Amino acid sequence: MSKNNYLVLGNTGFVGKNLFIYLEKKIKNKAKILGFGSKKIDLSIENKAKKLSKFIDKKSIIFFLSFNKTQRNAKISDLEKNLDIIKNFNKIISLKKPKKIIFFSTQSVYGEDTNNLNTTEKTLPDPTSYYGIAKYLAERLLIKICEEREIPLVVARIPRVYGEGDSAKNYGPTMFLNNFLKLNSFSIWGNGEEKRDYIYINDLNNIIFKLSNNSFQGVVNVCSGKPYSFSEIIKILETVSKKKIKIKKIKRTRKKVNHIMNNNLLQKIIGNYKFAHLDKNLGRLYNRYKSNEK
Predict the structure, then answer these.
(1) Residues with Cβ < 8 Å from 125, sequence gap 6 or more?
(2) I need a surface site. Which of 44, 167, 220, 224 has the fewest CB within 10 A?
(3) So where are the chain's domains?
(4) pLDDT at 160
């Protein structure tokens, strides 16, 4: 039986790097695993993007993470760069047909300022940021060419990912833990009541690998289905650290919105997957960071 080969496009960021390492350990010598960051192959520049063609064949499973991830203070030029990336990639797969593509999309396509208490794959997209708009446009462009070329495509809509190695600038569990360790305090908007879904990096890797070996095609929410408010995360950190955290409440500049994702379809596709609990993960991360300080 012929071996698959795995291409991780965007393997230098937090998620891509972890996925690449996961695949190396999971597959070992059973398949070829290649990783490409923008320094190796810049997909936003057509002449450089063409270099990717020689690595794609009918056994290739492509994990597509390459994207300009600027969200805060993003400009129209950031959106244009992302459209260049997807345009150049589509040109490549119009000539070289891979076995399957997993596109890493985002919860942001459902709307950063839209209150969603039960976000399913049928929830209408409503992105308001350049990043969310670019991701949704990329989804549609990929879906179109993959239908034309009969290439199996999975669009994974993913909430905030957290875990060891994540950027402390990402508003959520990692930022809260980092600020607590360094400052013993942090700021929240209002009372921190808005709820979000988060997914642990190890869970994400396991699920993406399952989807790559599954016959499912289409859009799926890759999420835990267990939302937490910012105030709940604070209480978890206080419990694992056995310390009281100083909280600065900032007056809201926008209305409170919840982003709660539904993972019923995901569980139907891959089976009854048991997600790691946020409190246990934060406990492990807290203990690991503290031990590294010694």
Answers:
(1) 109, 110, 111, 136
(2) 167
(3) 5-160+199-221, 167-196+227-257+277-293
(4) 93
According to DSSP, the β-strands at 195-200 and 227-229 are antiparallel
Spatial separation of the C-alpha atoms in residues 100 and 208, rounded to whole Å: 12
3-state percent breakdown (helix, strand, coil) of the chain, nearest 5: 45, 20, 35
Q: How far apart are CA 39 and CA 59, in angstroms?
A: 25
pLDDT at 206 over 50: yes
**167-196+227-257+277-293: in CATH 3.90.25.10:** yes
Query: φ, ψ for residue 84 (rounded to 5)?
Result: -65, -40
Domain 5-160+199-221 belongs in CATH node 3.40.50.720: yes
Cα 27 → chain centroid: 22
pLDDT digits (tens, 9 = 90+) for 27-56: 877 889 999 999 999 999 999 999 999 999
Look up tokens 């709660």; give the residue. Answer: 260
| Three-class DSSP category at 66 | coil
The conformational region for residue 134 under phi > 0 = left, psi -120 to 50 = alpha, else beta, is alpha
